[in-house]
Amino acid sequence: MLIFVLVYLSLPAKTQPEEDGVLFEIKENVFKFDGNSIWQGKANSLLSCSRTCASQSACKRVIFEGSKGTCFLLGEGQTHLANTLVKQDGTFYLKKITTTGVYSLLGTSKSAAIASCQALHSQSQSGVYWIDPDGGSHTNAFRAYCDMKTDGGGWTLVWSYSFTNNVDFTAHSNAVTPRPNWQVTPEVNVPISTTPPLNETNFNAMNFSLWKLLGRQILIKSNINNWLVCHPGTGSLVDWQEGEVSCKVVKHVTNTCTSALAPSKISPSKGYGPKLYRDSEWYSLYYYFDGYTGKDWPSHDPCGTSKSNHLKNVVNPRGNIYIRA
Ligand SMILES: [Ca+2]
Ligand SMILES: [Ca+2]
């Protein structure tokens, strides 16, 4: 049986700074050694054996034979042994890992699921990670896409949508699709998705009830309208609450209306989907997530005027919503 444990060792101040905290991955009851150690000696415990390794930068791996109290320090050259370990009771095989190595484990498997993309190390790459927004047992963890770059990163993708009729953008038959399972009027007829999108063109939506577990800030991206980051005020998308929001443009996608102000209000449930606007609900729309193919059209207007000012001639126009706390 493979046991994976992280041990944190605090070392005296005389050691080099990078060795103040050294982490080891431990495999118990396995042993394989070809006699090529950089040091071999007695140690009265696994801890003292691993401490000896921690204090020597050349030491990368440790084998400790508990019954004999023998400690082997292995250098870089023995790395291939990790794949050829054999069972032997009472022995320990320790692999030294860097702090970066520890962070790189986060979210890479179901058992290492993180609460949201914000739990990733800031140096992490954007991509798919395992998340478990409700915490506790990871049996219901799932894969989600993280944007680790835009406006500081830490964003979990909750919705990727396209349009039902982008060729005739202002036609009533145009709508965003699919839509999340949020509460809107029964007329709203585009398909509902509860499958987390795995990238920005994987048109799906995470179950809406999970959104609030990820946070209340939203990032809206689109390839036909400016990108917004909105903080909740009296209004909040994830709480399905009408009112004020504080939005800023984090990327100008088009040269149209570059000095236009970002929207300042949200009304989630009036009409056929959430609307972001500034003054008048119907005449200053910036984003309208209209999901009905029988009426209205999904404004993506960088001027905030409910007009057809979105970037034109874009192949496969789309949008994405991300969340962070
Ligand atoms: Ca869980
Ligand atoms: Ca429509």
TrEMBL record:
PROSITE patterns from the UniProt entry: FIBRINOGEN_C_2
Keyword Phosphoprotein: no
Keyword line: Collagen, Disulfide bond, Secreted, Signal
Compartments reported by the entry: Secreted
Record Gene3D superfamilies: 2.60.120.1000, Hepatocyte Growth Factor
KW Metal-binding (keyword) present: no
Main location, first listed in the record: secreted
Listed GO MF terms: extracellular matrix structural constituent; oligosaccharide binding
PANTHER family in the record: INTELECTIN, INTELECTIN-1A-RELATED
Protein name stated in the entry: Fibrinogen C-terminal domain-containing protein
Organism: Pocillopora meandrina
